[in-house]
Amino acid sequence: MKRLNILLIIVLSVVCLIYFFPIYWTVVTSVKTNLEVFTRPPVFFPSQLTLSNYYVQVNVFRAVSQTAVGSIPWMIDSTIIAVVATLVSTFLIAAPAAYSLVRYVRSVWLARLILFMTMIPEAVFVVPFFIIIAKISLLNTWWGLILVYISFSAPFSTWLLMGFFNDVPKSVEEAAQIDGLSPYQIFYRVSLRLVTPGIIAAIILSVISCWNELLYALVITYSPFPAGAQTVPLFLTSFIIAEKSFNWGGLAAAGVFIMLPTILMGVFAQRYLARGLTLGSVKG
Amino acid sequence: MQRGQALRVGLVLASPIVVYFLAFFIYPLFSLFQNAFTSDAGSFTLANFQQMLSDPILSVSLRNTLYYFAGSVTLEYSVGFVVAVILYSYAGRLKTVFRTIIFLPLMVSPVVIGLMWQMILNKNWGPLDYLLSPFGLGQVNWLGSQSLAMPSLILANTWEYSPFVFLIIYAGLQTVPPQLYEAASVDGLSRFQTFRFITLPSIRPSIIVAFLLNSIGVLKGFDLIYVLTNGGPGFSTYILSFYTYVVGFSFFEPHYAAAIALLFLAIIGTFVFLMLKFTSVEEHLGLGGGKGE
Description:
The complex is a heterodimer. By secondary structure, chain A is mainly α. Chain A has a single domain (69-277), classed as MetI-like (MetI-like fold, Orthogonal Bundle), CATH 1.10.3720. Helices cover 71% and strands 0% of the residues of chain A. Chain A contains 14 helices and no strands. Chain B has one domain (26-38, 45-254): Orthogonal Bundle (MetI-like fold). Helices cover 72% and strands 0% of the residues of chain B. In chain B, helix 3 runs parallel beside helix 7 (149-174). The interface between A and B is large, with 106 and 105 residues.
């Protein structure tokens, strides 16, 4: 048995190494000198580290530098879009809706409908959404993407928060009612505060999904920077797809910049996220 | 609180989502049907659906979708499941470290994952060729060959999504009451028997949910394909979600794209329906698991 244990620990270590390797490779490529990026056999442990991929301007293609610093205008757009969409969807739409469903409306069919909406593939609605956003003249703006992202994150956050509101003991709300608080005050001052872990999970998952989203960013903000409001995924794809890339070190640096915030948020809130990612089927 | 007042409060709180629901769910759904059943001139037609029957790219996309779906779900599910079981039972104090590492791919943007695997699979300077060179493979054109592009895509997708299966199964394992294992050891069950007769039945809900959510996630996939192969070489990695996008925004045929989107919705609808069936919505609403309204 002892030998089996050691063997399995080794297997697990190898598995973790495989999961970690692509991230390691991106980070290590981003700090390699250009010479060591393109060698064969590949360099696993660079002999010389450089940060030039992060800031040295290589203004050849579309006057945009393929470096981490070059991605900053896209990052600003991404941040604004993700934050606004998340705050609106969490606080103005999802939290009151979830509370209403759990405490007042209590309709199984409406709850099923919310769950159904969280599972529809993005690609299904891409044509109608494009038509809607075009009709209200919001193509190539922050607001166009914000409206779309709210429509994806609101049902998801509603479903997630329903589980959390459901865990709030009714006696707390009854006590507040006896203290003379109105139903809205109970929601806003008592229950909403008690589901803070759920709010955190909803915010983080929503920010991450807006930050990472590609399809709608492609369709709704097609005109290139600085005219439109393009998010970071478009920065990377515009180089990778067109095979216009020659500066893989710089793109890797941009990749590190882009994945760093989501990884940090994810690791920080790992415990809450499990429940959110699995649509509440997990209560870890 | 009186019934009338309760209803009013409930409606007020739910009003923002109702507005959003009408504008960004009902209206797009209506628009999807409207587009699918009209011609460019605006009259009613079934031509968009007839076009599907004779569209060679659509039939290739459907076949690829099946390949991609079967390959990805099989690999992701088996890897995620096995790793979760081993990690839960044998990792001891290393659990947290291992779990955090396996959790990482879920947090990385699919576009960055595309970039990573472009670099890893690069035929000139990618590390995968080098790591496999002891097996005598030489330089392999992972992404540029018709036969290898899809397996490469499945590989990258497995890296991205097997942690998701892992997460659900692992959480299921955590909910098995320890008393069950104690009883099993008192009864003298072997490790395999314990797993077969105690663990598996206890985590049955997780096993089903993991499969359904994994299937839906795989079918939804768009980003990784767009970045890694962009459907190519040729049409060898066109799948349904990607083709919907291409028809709408490269071929500029919104009516036909809407018809394909409806087909897509019908296919994924099967899994979504099962997921709705297996999720205890009543419990989520706090209705005590009953079937009442």
